[in-house]
Design brief:
The chain is α/β, with parallel strands linked by helices. The protein has 15 helices and eleven strands. It has helices at 3-9, 11-28, 38-60, 66-73, 85-94, 117-129, 140-164, 169-174, 197-201, 211-236, 254-258, 264-269, 307-314, 336-348, 360-372, and strands at 104-105, 113-114, 244-250, 275-281, 298-304, 323-326, 353-357, 384-385, 394-395, 403-404, 409-414. It has a seven-stranded mixed β-sheet. The chain has a two-stranded antiparallel ribbon with strand order 1-2. Residues 225-393 form the Mitochondrial splicing suppressor 51-like C-terminal domain.
Length: 415
């Protein structure tokens, strides 16, 4: 048991850890009336979440880790008023009453909660039948069910990997759920505008059942080459692939390394391409294994430190790549000063570039950063949804609605 878990389970710690959150909840009085103000509710749950994190960091004497913050971020809350089981228990204790009330869950998706029949009635219709814009006409309940299906599929794959390599279960569990790309090589370049994941890949799947979760899982890795190809097409108009293609990946992390094999999909879609050069540029990069293209075009993978430092070190020998791409950069959230230096350099050197993000909020912030620095943004590349973002959805932490996905949004593209 971690120290945080012990504190959460301890009654004294529980009182201290939720007293401020419950105070905000009582002041807002979100249980009054029969209409939910979603904006006010989102602000309230955000305040309660920050209060919990602040209180518990004081108790344990250090900042919470990302995993520990997620314990609060994904803590079940009533979808109508935002109250949690902990808050219910503490309120009952403060009032000297036994706490018999617990959050109940939607029996269809088992991922949305409510504290009373009246509150379930308030959210039932919207939750179960109203399509969420941008997600294939599926409701929140249906999307929650899809996420549960994808989690089960991931666990099946993880169990299979562990049985094959029992000595490395941790590394396998942390890796991408599925690294797959079709082996076919296309006869000619085909535009990606207006196409879909199903249209491009479903016919190449040969699985006994469950093409949906298989394709959604595979899209997590395939989103990398497909986003690159789509950005190249948008930035270059009537794009004619060249003999050599140079791609610089900025700030790469686990997904880019674990899925390096799927970059071969770029080669498979560009007939006539003889050489693909990939530069993975980040402060914590280590050597990356070469990808075997089995007698096809050459693929060269290299690494370097931060990109603006790389350009400075190259000096006059720096050659502008065909595209620089920052996947899920988080530039507005972490290392903002360093990212601004890189953005300035990209704009100054007129490097064709594209930035992606997990959600609309991050995309908007990063787009604003690029605009303030003078980037000539292309409207088709943000801030807007990325049609080739991962199909694997996750629920937004600390929110009662909303989803995010890897490379789900374009923050900005320019050249």
């Amino acid at each position: 048991m971690t120290m945080l878990s012990k504190v959460v389970d301890d009654n004294v710690g529980q009182d201290a850890g939720s007293s401020m959150a419950l105070h905000f909840y009582n002041l807002a009085d979100p249980t009054s009336g029969d209409v939910i103000n979603t904006q006010e509710l989102a602000e309230l749950t955000g305040m309660c979440l920050h209060a919990d994190v602040y209180d518990f960091e004081k108790i344990i004497g250090r900042p919470l880790t990302v995993i520990e913050r997620n314990l609060f971020g994904w803590e079940p809350r009533c979808a109508a008023c935002g109250i949690t089981d902990r808050m219910i228990r503490i309120r009952a204790k403060q009032q000297g009453q036994p706490s018999s009330t617990q959050l109940q869950k939607c029996m269809d998706c088992q991922s949305t909660f409510f504290c009373s029949p009246r509150h379930f009635a308030l959210i039932k219709k919207t939750h179960g039948t109203v399509p969420i814009n941008g997600y294939g006409n599926l409701s929140q309940c249906q999307l929650n069910q899809q996420i549960r299906e994808d989690v089960r599929f991931f666990n099946l794959l993880a169990d299979a990997k562990t049985s094959i390599s029992p000595d490395a279960p941790t590394a396998l569990a942390d890796s991408a759920p599925l690294t797959w790309a079709p082996e076919r090589v296309m006869d000619e370049w085909s535009s990606l505008k207006g196409s879909t994941w199903e249209g491009e890949f479903a016919s190449h799947l040969d699985v006994p059942a469950g093409k949906g979760p298989f394709l959604r899982s595979a899209s997590d890795g395939l989103a990398l080459p497909m986003t690159i190809l789509y950005a190249l097409e948008v930035l270059n108009g009537e794009w004619k692939p060249k003999d050599t293609l140079v791609i610089h990946v900025l700030g790469p992390s686990g997904p880019e390394i674990q899925n390096s094999m799927v970059f071969e999909e770029i080669v498979h879609r560009l007939p006539g391409l003889k050489r693909l050069e990939l530069l993975l540029c980040g402060p914590e990069m280590s050597a990356v294994n070469q990808t075997d293209t089995q007698g096809g075009p050459e693929m060269e993978l290299d690494t370097c430190p931060t990109y603006h430092e790389h350009i400075q070190q190259k000096g006059s020998s720096f050659k502008v790549p065909d595209l620089a791409v920052a996947f899920n950069s988080g530039a507005s959230e972490v290392e903002s000063d360093s990212w601004k230096e890189t953005m300035k350099m990209l704009i100054e050197k007129k490097v064709p570039s594209v930035f992606t993000s997990f959600n609309e909020l991050e995309a908007g912030k990063e787009s604003a950063m690029l605009s303030e620095l003078g980037a000539p943004l292309v409207p088709e590349l943000g801030p807007c949804r990325n049609p080739w973002g991962s199909m694997l959805l996750k629920t937004e932490p600390g929110r009662l609605d909303g989803f995010y996905n890897s490379n789900g949004w374009f923050a900005g593209g320019f050249k």
